[in-house]
């Protein structure tokens, strides 16, 4: 027993001398946002300055839950991004906190732990039967959140949902770019409303792009899934890149063809949500008739999509390519050519979806009403 104690003490000393962190600089650098991720689940995501654990705490029906960021059976400790899946029913209209503990060294039989940081309680608003329902749509921010915020400030009241429709950043070369996405999600949601995030073509670019998809822990393991908010059924798609895989800009290191083919097969397994009043598709690229040789238009038509909201064009178009799709296809705005910005608010009310758009100069850009069943 004495020998075991000596060995344990030596292991602790070895770990301490190998300590690669200073817990004084361990803090939450991006507060949590609550992302839709399919299968009636949310993914709560935040980040810290140094690696450590992550867990979400809340009480549901009198029981306290501590849900950890796990990889298989092990608590994840080597990342600064923390990602926890929570049932939607548990979090809707409830209060949660999130915490992380700095882990300096994790050996086979010993770990050196630093300080723990915990958020203030966050009151989360899910669907509670309200009508109308309002969804703020932002795309193509491209590292210009200030003008996006100015444009969004034109809408009265708080939205019920935040939709981030791709190209929030211009490339994904490191975890710092993903942290920018987290900062935008929190900036416009406050961690208190659900966030729908779809990946844009620019977020495919760089070494961190493939890793970022895994953080969301979606039901499909891709950046595509279905979710619902009250009477609204959302089909959230990953539309891939805007160029062929062979384009020189990718150095032969992408295979969107295979990825999108798998997504297309998944799409074919879906059925229309018969209970939904509104069926809305969300995806960054608007050319739905040719996604790496796959024509999604007939599939989406069979799914009875009432409106598809796309981006990428950096302008607003309420009836984009209406000769191609039997359902309305809207381009939602984003960063404009003069470094301005156009934000969109979708209001779901009485079987209609009203789209309103404003820019960063407080100018009204336009509006359009989509009537469900009109097609």
Instruction: Evaluate the radius of gyration.
Output: 22 Å
Helix/sheet category: alpha+beta
Top CATH class of the largest domain: Alpha Beta
User: Would you count the extended β strands for me?
Assistant: 22
Q: What is the CATH homologous superfamily assignment of the largest domain? A: Metallo-dependent phosphatases
Distance between the termini: 79 Å
The main sheet comes to: 15 strands, mixed
Mean pLDDT across residues: 92
Order of helices and strands: HEEEEEEEHEEEEHEHEHEEHEHEEEEEE
Overall tally of structural domains: 2
Describe this structure in words.
Helices cover 18% and strands 37% of the residues. The protein has helices at residues 2-17, 88-91, 145-152, 175-189, 209-215, 256-268, 297-302; strands at 28-36, 41-52, 55-60, 63-68, 70-71, 74-75, 79-87, 94-106, 111-118, 122-124, 133-138, 161-165, 194-198, 225-229, 232-236, 278-282, 307-310, 315-317, 329-335, 341-349, 352-359, 364-371. The protein folds into two domains: 20-124, Immunoglobulins (Immunoglobulin-like); 133-371, 4-Layer Sandwich (Purple Acid Phosphatase, chain A, domain 2). The termini are far apart.
């Amino acid at each position: 027993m004495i020998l075991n104690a000596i060995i344990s003490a030596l292991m602790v000393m070895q770990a301490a001398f190998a300590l690669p962190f200073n817990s004084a600089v361990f803090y939450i650098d991006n507060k949590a946002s609550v992302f839709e991720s399919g299968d009636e689940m949310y993914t709560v995501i935040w980040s810290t300055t140094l690696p450590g654990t992550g867990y979400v705490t809340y009480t549901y029906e009198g029981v306290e839950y501590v849900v950890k960021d796990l990889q298989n059976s092990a608590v994840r400790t080597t990342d600064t991004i923390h990602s926890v899946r929570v049932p939607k029913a548990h979090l809707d209209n409830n209060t949660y906190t999130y915490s992380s503990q700095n882990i300096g060294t994790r050996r086979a039989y010993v770990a050196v732990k630093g300080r723990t940081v915990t958020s203030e309680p966050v009151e989360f608003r899910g669907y509670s039967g309200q009508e109308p329902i309002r969804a703020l749509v932002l795309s193509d921010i491209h590292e210009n959140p200030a003008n996006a915020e100015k444009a969004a400030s034109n809408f009265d009241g708080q939205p019920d949902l935040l939709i981030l429709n791709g190209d929030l950043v211009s490339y994904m070369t490191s975890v710092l770019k993903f942290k920018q996405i987290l900062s935008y999600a929190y900036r416009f949601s406050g961690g208190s409303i659900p966030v729908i995030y779809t990946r844009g073509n620019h977020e495919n670019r760089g070494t961190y792009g493939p890793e970022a998809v895994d953080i969301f822990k979606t039901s499909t393991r891709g950046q595509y899934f279905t979710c619902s908010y009250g009477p609204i059924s959302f089909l959230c798609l990953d539309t891939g890149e805007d160029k062929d895989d062979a384009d020189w800009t990718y150095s032969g290191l992408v295979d969107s063809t295979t990825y999108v083919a798998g997504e297309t097969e998944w799409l074919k397994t879906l059925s229309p949500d018969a209970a939904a009043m509104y069926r809305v598709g969300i995806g960054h690229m608007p050319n739905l008739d040719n996604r790496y040789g796959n024509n999604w238009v007939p599939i989406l038509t069979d799914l009875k999509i009432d409106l598809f909201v796309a981006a990428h064009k950096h302008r607003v178009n309420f009836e984009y390519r209406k000769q191609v799709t039997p359902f309305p296809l809207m381009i939602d705005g984003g960063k404009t050519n003069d470094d301005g910005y156009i934000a969109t608010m979708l209001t779901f009310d009485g079987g209609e979806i009203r789209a309103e758009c404003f820019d960063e100069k407080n100018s009204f850009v336009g509006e359009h009403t989509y009537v469900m069943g009109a097609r």
